Amino acid sequence: MAHGDDSSIPKGRIRRTAQVGSVVGTQGARYAGTRAANLARSPEEAADALERRHLEAAERMVATLGRMKGAAMKIGQLASFIDTEFLPPEYRELYQEQLAQLRTQAPTMPWKQVRKVLDEEWEEPCEELFEHFEHEAAAAASIGQVHRAMLPDGRAVAVKIQYPGVADAIAADMQNAGLILRMAKALAPGLDAKAAADELKERVMEELDYELEAQNQRSFARGYRDHPFIHVPDVVTRLSTQRVLVSEWVDGAGFEEVKQLPQEQRNRFGEIVFRFCFGSIFHLQHFNADAHPGNYLLMPDGKVAFLDFGMTKHLDKDQIELEITALEAIFDGEPERLRVALHDLGFLNNPKKIDAEQLMEHVKVVGGWYMEDREVTVDSRRVMDAIAAVSDPRSEFYRLMRRENLPANELMGRRMESGVLAVLGQLEATRNWFRIGREWWFADRPATPLGEQEWAYFESRGEKRVRKFAARAT
After folding, report:
1. Which residues, listed in sequence order, are joined to residue 246 by a DSSP beta bridge?
2. Which has more pLDDT, 163 or 124?
3. Is 429 inside any structural domain?
4. Is 284 part of any domain?
5. pLDDT per position as a tens digit, 136-186
6. pLDDT band of 391, cuts 50, 70, 90
7. What is the DSSP string of 159-226?
8. Does any domain span residue 174?
9. How far apart are CA 199 and CA 194, in angstroms?
10. Do β-strands 230-231 and 304-306 pair in parallel, antiparallel, or remain unpaired?
């Protein structure tokens, strides 16, 4: 592939490091220059100049990450939901708005390059396998793009095709994990950087294997088949390979349209996202770590379709039990028990150095939206407070946890939780999230009409509404 072609993916580590480094370095220098020049400007002019500089920086970062695709773009997508360290608070929205484009507007690759992958993956030409195949991409994901096609039996399908060269590009990205993590600051400050990079590498490399993704998607599709309000498209296994994933096509309204709906419909959509993302942990012991709304569609029948299972995580029973033990300690107002539980989960290296009361206050800031027994509207203030608590060096908790550790095993769970919180914040969704959570944690009665439908569904499939994950004695 010619490097002069704009649509090619730069593969070499040096070249890719230079691209990301130049965005951060150049923008830092320009930002400093703008700050110096601002001393001679009126406050209004200074603010305008700074805003222009930030917008330019955000746009340039999007362009660079978009061209890089692969892991850099994956982390860029995550950063569009989570705060970034180097942003002054007044410009966060600006960057988030620009970075949000990465979720849905990745630059697409031309058909001739995509076609080469199809010819390499399938023994027969696609003209013989499909009645019709649209050459224009319907959507671009971080490591591939989706085309709509029609099978000879009349079924509409989505064909996800991996970008040629993306595996080499991602291998180069993964050498740069430290640089990219610093740039995006998408993860908690107390991270064990090496363990986190290893975990991220494992998950992202899994994403390169569409056969593994197909297996994950089949598992979720089975787990939710004929569910009253959750839909996971079926995989067409015989046409799916390591670099091509074919699944049932889903029509529906995207997230931008959903955000325009009346509030009660947004609340319902938010509850469904919450039930799917968190509920899968308890119903399937398996969850989708990639909680971003580019993968959600509101179908005409009112169900929500969930797409893209490239980054999922299995949890063992012991870990789920420990999570519930920590929650119980919070609900019972026992800071010391919480400190022990978080140590058992691997969050605290030296629990005796951590003030238990302060720790509990922090956990309530981050997860309070589903820990309070009342109707809670998730708004932007709540989202920003939760993010600031873990990523703002000025916050008390940042200082408290700076010496501590976020275990790699928990990384994907926290990532999913942050993603869901951000989605609910954009919807300004209101529910008693605590009561819904108790259905899973403690086998309480269904808290909402959707809960009644869901439990009727799982009970019809032989799942008893009993407390499956007994909390341990402390």
Report:
1. 159
2. 124
3. yes
4. yes
5. 999 876 678 899 999 999 999 999 998 877 767 666 666 665 554 554 344
6. low
7. EEEEPTTHHHHHHHHHHTHHHHHHHH--S-TTB-HHHHHHHHHHHHHHHT-HHHHHHHHHHHHHHTTT
8. no
9. 9
10. parallel
Provide the pLDDT confidence category of residue 472 given band limits of 50, 70 and 90.
Answer: low
Tell me what pLDDT residue 59 has: 59
The encoded tokens of residue 242 equal 């390591």
> Lowest mean pLDDT: which of 81-95, 114-128, 318-332?
81-95
**Residue 49 burial class via C-beta count within 10 angstroms: exposed 0-12, middle 13-18, buried 19 and up:** middle
Catalytic residue among 290, 308, 355, 392: 290
DSSP, collapsed to helix, strand or coil, labels residue 102 as: helix
Number of domains in the chain: 2
- For residues 401 and 274, the answer to whether their CB atoms sit within 8 Å is no
pTM to 2 decimal places = 0.77
**Of 90, 98, 92, 106, whose CA–CA distance to 48 is shortest?**
90
> What one-character-per-residue DSSP string does 111-151 give?
HHHHHHHHHHH-SS-HHHH-SEE-SS-SEE-SSEEEEEEE-
User: Which pair of tokens denotes residue 158?
Assistant: 């989505």
Cβ-count burial of 332 within 10 angstroms (0-12 exposed, 13-18 middle, 19+ buried)?
exposed
The Cα 472–Cα 455 span in angstroms is 25
Q: Which pLDDT score, from 0 to 100, does residue 285 have?
A: 93
Plot region of 165 (φ>0 → left; ψ -120 to 50 → alpha; else → beta): left
Q: Which residues pair with 231 in a beta bridge?
A: 305
Q: Is residue 205 part of a domain?
A: no
- Which domain covers residue 28, as residue numbers? 13-103
Residue 290: active-site member: yes
* CA quadruple 38, 41, 43, 48: dihedral sign: negative
Q: State the DSSP string of 230-296.
A: EE-PPB-GGG--SSEEEEE----B-HHHHTTS-HHHHHHHHHHHHHHHHHHHHHHSEEES---GGGE
